Structure formats: structure tokens, C-alpha cells
């Protein structure tokens, strides 16, 4: 196992931490400084709280850097019935649901992940925080709103070499609009990951115009 993945054993939970995926959203620290304290070594204490509370905090980690496995009747993470995509203003795509990455970058379950949409990440298709350094700007706007709900089911995320992110399966994209929060529902959609689309979050073919290049892993 990679040196970037750390394991913390508790009585009913084993907590895993992938440092490469952490974007310091601090959902864990704000959830409980007793269980998650970056100034302490080890910084994770799975037994600081009842296991279901620790599990609930971990499930708020939007990047999937933290995940857990239950032992001795401990809790098991259950994703939503369909995949939700949240547009982060000037930042990545947060995906949460029954999804799989192709190619798989995760050493744990793919229920939560942050995907690059600025084009600058060195760990594509995952976000590595470089959107701030390159000055990526996009407020996460959506035009219009879907009325019909998504259907339950898995979503496969395919990072097209030198192209967009293809999401195959029902997804709900959440962003903002003139009247507040908006959502769009798709059963298949291509999302920009080069940062140049004029129709964000959707791909408009700009990756060809800017000669966007990726390495498929």
C-alpha cells in the first residue's frame, strides 16, 4: 500500500486516509476535534466518539480522502441511490453516490471524490488543489432546472484522454442560478475538465482548441 495511505485501527472502525486526495475541506476537523486533530499524532482517533458518529463525520468528507471499514458489527457506508455532482465555485466537481472511476484511482470505495475541472491537476482526473494557483474562475452556474428526478443506479466516470469527463448513468448536477440553487438531471453527460469550456460545467469541445493533454493512468 502507498505511503500516502494511512490506517487507524479502532474497536469497531478502521479509518483510512489518502493524503493525495485530501483538499483540506476540514469537514472532519469541524465535525470533531476529539476524533480528528491535525496537531496530534496520530491525528485520527476512531474511538474518541461512538463509531456511528465517527462514520457520519467521515461521510461528510467530499473528496473521499477519508473512508472507513467496519469491524465487529460496526457501521457500513451507504451512498445515495444515485450520484450527485456539486459544482464548487472556482474549484472542483464533488461527486457523491454509487460511482466508479475508470481508470480507478481510488484505493478505497468510490463513493465520494473530487474531480479536476481547471485542467491543471497533476493527478488527473482527481483534483489536487491547483485551481487556486492557476486562477481558475467559474461560479458554478446552471441555467434552468430539471423537473424529473434521477433514477437509482450506478454511475461510471470515464476520463476521456485529452477530453472531457463522461458520466454514464443517472446523475444530478447541483449549482446556482438566478433564482438560487439549481439542479439538472442527466442519464449521460460530458463535463469539462480542461477549464476552457464556454458552457461550463458542460464540455463544448474547447479541449481540442487549446490542445488539452492528459495522461490516462
What does this structure look like?
The chain has helices at about 25-30, 50-60, 130-135, 205-210; strands at about 5-10, 15-20, 65-70, 85, 95, 100, 110-115, 155-160, 165-175, 180-190. The protein is mainly beta. The protein folds into 2 domains: about 5-70, Alpha-Beta Plaits, CATH 3.30.70.20; about 85-210, Ribosomal Protein L9, domain 1, CATH 3.40.5.90. Strands 4, 5, 6, 7, 8, 9 and 10 form a 7-stranded mixed sheet that branches. The chain has a 3-stranded antiparallel sheet with strand order 1-2-3, covered by helices on one side. The radius of gyration is 18 Å and the shape is globular.
In CATH terms, the superfamily of the largest domain is CDGSH iron-sulfur domain, mitoNEET-type
Overall number of structural domains: 2
Which class best fits the helix and strand makeup?
mainly beta
What's the overall average pLDDT, rounded?
91
CATH class membership of the largest domain:
Alpha Beta
What best-fitting shape do the alpha-carbon axes yield? globular
Range of helix content: under 10%
Range of strand content = 25-35%
Q: Low-confidence segments, ≥5 residues, pLDDT <50?
A: none
Total strands: the figure is 10
Radius of gyration: 18 Å
- CATH topology tier name of the largest domain: Ribosomal Protein L9, domain 1
**Tally of individual helices:** 4
Report how far the terminal alpha carbons are from each other.
Answer: 17 Å
- Largest sheet, if any? 7 strands, mixed
What is the succession of H and E elements? EEHHEEEEEHEEEH
**CATH architectural arrangement of the largest domain:** 3-Layer(aba) Sandwich
Amino acid at each position: 500500500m502507498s505511503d500516502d495511505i494511512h490506517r487507524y485501527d479502532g474497536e469497531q472502525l478502521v479509518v483510512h486516509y489518502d493524503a493525495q486526495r485530501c483538499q483540506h475541506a476540514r469537514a472532519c476537523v469541524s465535525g470533531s476535534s476529539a476524533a480528528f486533530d491535525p496537531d496530534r499524532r496520530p491525528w485520527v482517533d476512531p474511538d474518541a466518539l461512538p463509531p456511528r458518529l465517527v462514520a457520519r463525520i467521515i461521510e461528510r468528507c467530499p473528496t473521499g480522502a477519508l473512508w472507513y471499514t467496519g469491524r465487529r458489527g460496526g457501521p457500513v457506508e451507504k451512498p445515495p441511490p444515485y450520484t450527485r455532482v456539486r459544482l464548487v465555485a472556482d474549484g472542483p466537481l464533488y461527486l457523491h453516490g454509487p460511482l466508479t472511476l475508470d481508470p480507478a484511482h481510488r484505493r478505497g470505495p468510490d463513493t465520494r471524490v473530487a474531480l479536476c475541472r481547471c485542467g491543471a491537476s497533476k493527478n488527473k482526473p482527481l483534483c489536487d488543489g491547483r485551481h487556486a494557483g492557476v486562477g481558475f474562475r467559474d461560479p458554478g452556474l446552471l441555467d434552468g432546472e430539471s423537473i424529473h428526478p434521477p433514477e437509482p443506479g450506478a454511475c461510471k466516470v470515464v476520463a476521456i484522454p485529452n477530453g472531457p469527463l463522461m458520466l454514464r448513468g443517472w446523475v444530478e448536477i447541483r449549482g446556482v442560478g438566478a433564482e438560487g440553487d439549481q439542479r439538472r438531471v442527466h442519464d449521460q453527460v460530458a463535463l469539462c475538465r480542461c477549464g476552457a469550456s464556454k458552457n461550463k460545467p458542460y464540455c463544448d469541445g474547447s479541449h481540442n482548441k487549446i490542445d488539452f493533454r492528459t495522461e490516462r493512468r
